[in-house]
Design brief:
With about 270 residues, chain A is of the alpha/beta class. Chain A is built from four helices and eleven strands, in the order βββββαββαβαββαβ. The chains are: A alpha/beta (about 270), B mainly beta (about 110). Chains A and B meet through β3, β4, β6 and β11 of A and β1, α1 and β7 of B. Bound molecules: flavin-adenine dinucleotide and zinc ion. Flavin-adenine dinucleotide sits at the interface of chains A and B.
Chain lengths: ~270, ~110
């Protein structure tokens, strides 16, 4: 864009105004902390004025230091909508700028800015007519499991019985997020809201796990025998960019057309988280 | 802010530069401008004519602006840059944006 004629608008860099019906930064207070694995935790925030969200959407969080420097990152909504409560689950990147602060330093009562909910594309609401009777395949790498678990929670809450399988790739037992919840979800596959869960360990398996450690392979995304058809009508893939690229290649090999696949890339590197 | 968040030695705004993400990741930037959820908008690439959801485009964050590229031909279809003079929205790489009616909140 080379046009230099001023056309008015905000040229002074002042605070963003809230566009009507759009999203804008809101003040939030940390009201809950729950560990999820050795290096991740769920942060629950109270966000006055929050008007709800859909499973799969995300928020932007902004932290501002005393000198005014600020950093912002995106985090998937970790719980289905419930009044002004907004939760995120953050995995620690050891040399990261923002995640160590969220996972290790923040304390109850701390404040930060939240913008959202964002995105209606990477979303699965129970009863979505474009999904119909399913089946639905969810593929997670590392913390990419967060929005997919939110989808599973919303589905369970709604008593939805669309055949669903979660394939969750992670490095080792210490990296497992939502372990007890996933076990319960897959314990009785005839219960409403239940889902088949396949854990794909890439480096280290827990004692007795039937699958040896290796990267996600085409067998891991083969349909469970109970599925009415071999291909899911919708696939959600979430994780690092490397993981999502890898999973997308496997899906193409398995015969999935692009219009059945929805992806969310969290960051640049790593095939297994 | 009341917490003790301290900045790093070399501040860089936004997410890591050079990372290729999905349009979803850029949606916060565009939603602040478009006043509605951009991720479900069907965008037609001005170079190759492919139509894809905004959420499917390749997103490049962390540079001087947020850039969206066509997943098929890699051409730039949209860009947002925030400068002291104001916010630039450059859609010259796209030939159309179809806003579908959305059901629930977005
Ligand atoms: C739409 C969206 C939703 C997201 N949801 C979640 C979520 O629910 N939970 C969550 O924990 N994270 C999520 N992320 C990732 C998150 O936004 C941050 O990128 C992450 O927390 C790292 O930030 P950081 O400041 O700690 O690291 P940075 O300082 O940004 O990066 C530190 C180093 O790690 C590398 N890096 C950055 N991201 C990743 C990654 N994902 N994997 C491997 N290496 C990386 C960088 O290249 C850099 O070298 C999401 C990202 C997007 C775009
Ligand atoms: Zn193109």
């Amino acid at each position: 864009m080379t046009d230099t004629t001023s056309t008015g608008g905000q040229a002074d860099g002042s605070a963003e105004e809230a566009p009507p019906g759009g999203i804008h930064w809101r003040k939030a207070t940390l009201i809950g902390l729950h560990p999820q694995s050795w290096h991740s935790r769920t942060l629950a925030l109270d966000v006055p004025g929050w008007t709800g969200h859909l499973p799969g959407q995300h928020v932007d969080l902004r932290l501002t230091a005393a000198d005014g420097y600020s950093a912002q990152r995106s985090y998937s909504l970790a719980e289905p909508a419930a009044s002004s409560r907004v939760a995120v689950t953050v995995d620690l990147l050891p040399h990261g700028e923002v995640s160590p602060y969220l996972v290790e330093s923040m304390e109850l009562g701390d404040e930060l800015d939240v913008r959202g909910p964002i995105g209606g594309w990477f979303v699965w609401e129970p009863g979505d007519p474009s999904i119909g009777g399913g089946p639905v395949l969810l593929i997670a790498g590392g913390s990419g499991v967060v929005p997919l678990v939110t989808m599973l929670r919303a589905r369970k809450r709604a008593g939805d019985s669309t055949p669903t399988m979660l394939v969750y790739s992670l490095r080792g037992p210490r990296d497992l997020m939502y372990g007890p919840e996933l076990e319960e979800l897959s314990a009785d596959l005839s219960a409403p809201g239940s889902a088949e869960v396949r854990l794909v360990y890439t480096r280290k398996i827990p004692y007795g796990h039937p699958r040896p450690a290796s990267h996600l392979a085409i067998e891991d995304i083969e349909p469970p025998s109970a599925w009415p058809e071999p291909l899911a009508v919708r696939v959600y893939v979430c994780g690092s960019s490397g993981f999502v690229d890898h999973a997308t290649r496997l899906l193409h090999k398995a015969g999935y057309p692009d219009d059945r696949i929805r992806t969310e890339r969290f960051g640049p590197t790593g095939a297994d988280r | 802010m009341s917490s003790d968040y301290s900045p790093p030695a070399t501040p860089h705004g936004g997410a890591d530069s050079g990372a290729v993400l999905d349009g979803n990741a850029a949606a916060g930037d565009f939603a602040g401008i478009l006043a509605s959820d951009p991720t479900t908008v069907m965008v037609r690439c001005g170079s190759c004519g492919a139509t894809q959801a905004f959420g499917q485009l390749s997103a490049y964050l962390g540079g001087p602006g947020t850039v969206l590229r066509c997943r098929r031909c890699e051409a730039m279809v949209a860009r947002v840059a925030r400068t002291p003079r104001g916010t630039w929205l450059d859609l010259s790489g796209s030939s159309s944006w179809l806003f579908l009616p959305t059901p629930g909140p977005a």
